[in-house]
Design brief:
The chain is an alpha/beta fold and 292 residues long. The protein has twelve helices and six strands. α1 (4-22) packs across α3 (38-46), α4 packs antiparallel against α5 (68-76) and α10 (192-205) packs antiparallel against α12. The radius of gyration is 21 Å and the shape is elongated. It comes from Streptomyces telluris.
Length: 292
């Protein structure tokens, strides 16, 4: 288990090493090709140091990588959301960079991964996933989670959460598959009116072709998800970049080992199989809102 930035650097380094090997170059030859010391290439490949987007581009040029999608993905994994000290002004920035001094690094890294992933699979046991929350619901959740926050802090965090939802729009929106325990739908977060609006929003968002919702009703009994929620980020074309995120009260843990990814992937598949279908889930959610 590692914290997010370390995970991202390691995965980026592993893919750069793979591209170097595909190009038939040693680390020394790669270093000479870009005018660096061999130790710099080694540090980048092991994930022990950060790397600027411009340096990733230089390496990919040296390796003859012309695939625009691959180059964009690896460039994004440089850490635009939480830049390295001394990073040049021309580095690619995500919208969340403006919040770098006010949000925890782990949250910035989570947003960065979310913005570049192609698919998000999540199990939620207590609250609606952030990407599917209404502003009022997000406001109520934030107040509850922080205890007694200042109003301006709450509003800023809600703005960030709403900005994150941009990944659900556009030409290539993030695919979301969410398994929701029935408790998520029954907790009256913010009161009946706020919750009614949130349930309506879930049904509306569930009508999008790239959002799939699956409810685990109380009648399904115990399930492997009772140990807690998790998120699986999947990336286009490179399965080795996939990450599992476990949220805790004061931090997030990122699981990157292949055995962890297999275990959580299998768990999610099982949970979805035991849950209601997408269509029946939308009916179930609408029924709760209607007082059923």
């Amino acid at each position: 288990m590692r914290y997010g930035p370390a995970v991202r650097r390691r995965k980026l380094g592993a893919e750069l090493r793979r591209q170097r090997e595909l190009a038939g170059l040693t680390s020394l030859e790669a270093a000479r090709a870009v005018g660096w010391h061999q130790s710099k290439v080694s540090r980048i490949e092991t994930g022990s140091s950060g790397v600027k987007p411009a340096d990733v581009a230089r390496l990919l040029d040296a390796y003859g990588v012309t695939d625009a999608e691959l180059r964009a993905l690896l460039g994004a994994l440089c850490g635009a959301g939480s830049p390295e000290p001394g990073e040049g002004a021309g580095a690619r920035r995500g919208w969340w960079y403006a919040y770098r001094d006010r949000l925890p690094p782990a949250y910035l890294d989570f947003i960065s991964l979310e913005s570049e992933a192609s698919r998000l699979s999540t199990l939620e046991t207590t609250v609606v996933p952030g990407l599917l929350q209404t502003p009022d619901y997000a406001r109520a959740v934030t107040r509850a989670a922080l205890g007694d926050p200042a109003p301006e802090q709450v509003e800023e965090l809600v703005r960030v959460r709403m900005a994150r939802q941009a990944v659900l729009r556009g030409e290539q929106p993030l695919e979301v598959c969410a398994v929701l325990d029935e408790a998520v739908l029954r907790h009256e977060v913010g009161g009946p009116e706020v919750m009614a609006g949130q349930l309506r929003h879930l049904v509306e968002t569930g009508s999008l072709g790239h959002v799939r919702l699956h409810v685990l009703p109380f009648s399904s009994g115990g399930h492997m998800g009772i140990t807690g929620p998790f998120v699986i980020f999947s990336f286009p074309r490179i399965a080795d970049l996939d990450v599992v995120v476990l949220d805790h009260l004061t931090s997030s843990l990122y699981l990157e080992r292949k055995e962890d990814l297999r275990a959580y992937g299998a768990a999610f598949t099982t949970l979805r199989a035991h849950a209601l279908s997408h269509e029946k889930s939308l009916e179930f959610i609408a029924g709760i809102n209607d007082g059923a």
